[in-house]
Structures are given as structure tokens and as C-alpha cells.
Predict the 3D structure of the following.
Amino acid sequence: MSAALPPWAAAVTALLAVAGSLLALVGSIGLLRMKTFYERVHPPTMGTTLGLGLVLVGSMVFFTVTQSRPVLHEILIGVFMTMNTPVTYVLLVRAAVHRDALAGVGPAAREPAPPEQAPPEP
């Protein structure tokens, strides 16, 4: 059976979980406030990554205290999320740039054409 959670551990766990949830909420609000797809990709990526990290640390504190042994399973979750979030971000943006270039809109279509090479003067 698990032991009762001491007040200090309950406070730390609650603080970390609430802080992580607020960061995820800020990322979600940033998603709603931004106008273009390229602006919308960044806030949830950053907010979710840091918010998830705080929630996982809170989970580690809770289960380590209640089970009287180190519980480190959450580190694996954090590693996978930290590795996958930037990869997903890059893939989404590359797909959007490719789609916009084919349609003739977006950042890829706005790039100026390279200047023509003038023949060398004799």
C-alpha cells in the first residue's frame, strides 16, 4: 500500500502540475491568437514542451514520495516528447512551405528571384 502524501509533497506536486497546465494553456491561447499557420505552429510547440516537463516532474515527485522509491518512468516520456516535438514542428512547416510554393503563396513564393548574371565585360 502507499503512504499518505505529506503536505510539502502535495504542495510541490500541485504547484508543478498547475504551472505546467498554465504553460500549456498559454501555448493554446497563442495558437488561437496568431494569424497565419507559420505563426501558429510555434506557441503550442514551446508551451506544450515546457508544460509537459513540469507536469512530469510533479508526477515524479508524487509517485516517488508515495511509493518510497525513485520513480523515473516519466523521464522516458519527457525524452520522447522532447525529441518528437521539434521533428514534428519541422515536418509540418516543410509540408506547409512546399504546399504554399506549389500554390504560389506564402513565404516560399515571396522570395525574390535570384539576380540574373550579366556577362563579364571584356
Observations:
- Residues 7-107 form one domain.
